[in-house]
What we know:
By secondary structure, the protein is an alpha+beta fold. Helix content is 14%, strand content 19%.
Amino acid sequence: MTRTTPPRPVDVEAAFPELTAERRAATRLHPRRGTPTAQDSSVGGVLLWPADEPWPRCTVPHKRSSGYRISDVLREREILERAWRRDPRSGPNSEESEILAGFKRGRHAPHLADTDPIPMLAVAQLYRRDVPGLPHSEQGDLLQVFWCPFEKHGDSRHDLHVQLRWRHARDVVAPLEQQPAPEVVGRQELVPSPCVLHPEGIVEHPYFTVLPSSLQTRIDAWEGPEEDDAPQYIYDLSTAPGWKAGGYLAWRLTPPQSTPCLECSAELSPVLTLDEREWDPGTTSWIPLEDRPYADVMDANTPTWVSPGRGRLVIAACPNAAAHPLRLLTP
Ligand SMILES: [Zn+2]
Ligand SMILES: [Zn+2]
């Protein structure tokens, strides 16, 4: 099924023609629970990976023996999803609750030393045919995204460790059949549930706080107070919520900052935005038409079960070279 973002409630470019020059394409990915194959763009699905190529592993020293069993994480979601389908209000019954209570954090992989390589999690794969705006076309037609299942990296020791791989799908003649996965994960919210994607091209405008202050003042006066039900630039007219490729950064938690490439100083651009929610009470205007009948179902807006860092993560990459270092932003 396709997914269709409703037209924006007002034409912001008609009201502020200078925004026309700032429009930027984005692809809303619209992940929804399903069973994607290696031939599909997906979140948390089977990747198209050559059997003779080593799977990405995290070798950064950090504890990896304690956490949640990945099998428990997936089983827990199965139980909850089944319970919510049965009755969206009551949730799991007592028998199910008893099983859920057994899924505890613990030292489930005591044999793992802090430097043992562990398989990274397959987070997503995007085919260029589905997401035409992906950068670095010379690198291939398939982008694959991995992360370590522990947030214990970087100077802060709380950062994610993300890797991107590019490949030409036609080069994979003998695909890997059994995809590696870590035994234990540091946070349940780093395990994506299998989702098929329904990519949709949309247009975005810069986030409010990066606009010139004179324009901010005019938009403020035009849209009126937030308590009115009138459309708001930040929520309804600038950037889309949910998983997306390309587009603009929404600086919701931090003031806007410049993000130069550490190698060549070019401004990095957002390749992929991962979002805990596909919409929330402030961004209901973005709910696709096809999802509106079910938008209030318990987990309708959290199909991936992923919540990185503070709920949202932007993987920003250098437009000039795929090999230049990524930056992970939690704007
Ligand atoms: Zn790691
Ligand atoms: Zn660069």
